[in-house]
């Protein structure tokens, strides 16, 4: 072997491991982000508290659970949360009236065939335009800017099934109605609203626990991370 060929062989032997090491290192850096590196994504949380009360105000049952964002096609009660957020952030809509909705199965908790939401107990804000037997206009909405939370609270009264025994709350959701962009959030529209289901969930281990004419106190705390 000549001196030139020998030197070329040595050089190739040294370069191949270095190139392979560089490729492996680059692949690892793409596949495994550094610990502590920022992560993409925004999560919306919803913590639910449901207290069922007897006629004398005493507590009959208590439940707590979490919900999820409601996306189109997410049945039952498919949602519109991504469209709502896009419309609000893009200034094509303004915030309207909030709702809390409670649903059962087979025999619903509340019903009014003339209402926009026919089946289910709907807790909405006092300024809402709808008047129906299954609409309860006592919802309050408060914000905590330091904690970054929105809290919805209200009470419904089961009214659709006298004498049929305890009923189960199987699905719950919040809904946010939206107004035209020209409507000020401090004085939202009350009729002809858009928007829709914002957060929702199936109630874990649903069981018959609401009797006819019992009241249902609901608190939902929406937060972001």
What can you tell me about this protein's structure?
The protein has 225 residues and is an alpha+beta fold. The chain has two domains: 1-38; 44-224, no CATH class. The protein is 17% helix and 38% strand. It has two helices and 13 strands. The strands form three sheets. Strands 3-11-10-4-5-6 form a six-stranded mixed sheet. The protein is globular, with a radius of gyration of 27 Å. It starts with a helix and ends with a strand. Residues 6-33 have low confidence and may be disordered.
Short description:
By secondary structure, this protein is an alpha+beta fold.
Average pLDDT figure:
81
Give the biggest beta sheet. Answer: 6 strands, mixed
Total beta strand runs: 13
What gap, in angstroms, lies between the N and C termini?
Answer: 67 Å
Total domain count: 2
Shape: globular
* SSE class: alpha+beta
Low-confidence runs of at least 5 consecutive residues: 6-33
Order of helices and strands: HEEEHEEEEEEEEEE
Number of continuous helical runs: 2
Amount of helix: 10-25%
What is the CA-atom radius of gyration, in angstroms?
27 Å
The spatial strand order of the largest sheet comes to 3-11-10-4-5-6
User: In percent, how much strand structure appears in the residues?
Assistant: 35-45%
């Amino acid at each position: 072997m000549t001196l030139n060929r020998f030197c070329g062989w040595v050089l190739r032997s040294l370069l191949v491991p270095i190139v392979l090491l560089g490729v492996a290192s680059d692949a690892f850096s793409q596949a495994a982000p550094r610990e502590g590196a920022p992560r993409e994504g925004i999560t919306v949380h919803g913590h639910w508290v449901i207290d069922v009360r007897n006629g004398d105000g005493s507590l009959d049952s208590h439940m707590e659970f979490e919900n999820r964002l409601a996306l189109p096609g997410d049945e039952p009660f498919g949602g519109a949360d991504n469209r709502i957020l896009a419309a609000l952030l893009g200034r094509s809509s303004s915030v309207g009236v909030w709702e809390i909705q409670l649903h059962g199965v087979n025999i619903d908790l509340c019903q009014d065939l003339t209402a926009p939401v026919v089946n289910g107990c709907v807790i909405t804000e006092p300024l809402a335009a709808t008047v129906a037997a299954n609409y309860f206009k006592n919802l309050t909405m408060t914000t905590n800017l330091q904690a970054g939370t929105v809290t919805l609270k209200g009470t419904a009264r089961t009214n659709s099934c006298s004498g049929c025994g305890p009923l189960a709350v199987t699905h719950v959701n919040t809904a946010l109605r939206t107004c035209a962009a020209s409507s000020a959030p401090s004085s939202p529209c009350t009729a002809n609203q858009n928007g829709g289901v914002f957060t929702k969930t199936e109630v874990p281990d649903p069981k018959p626990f609401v009797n006819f004419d019992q009241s249902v106190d609901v608190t939902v705390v929406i937060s972001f991370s």
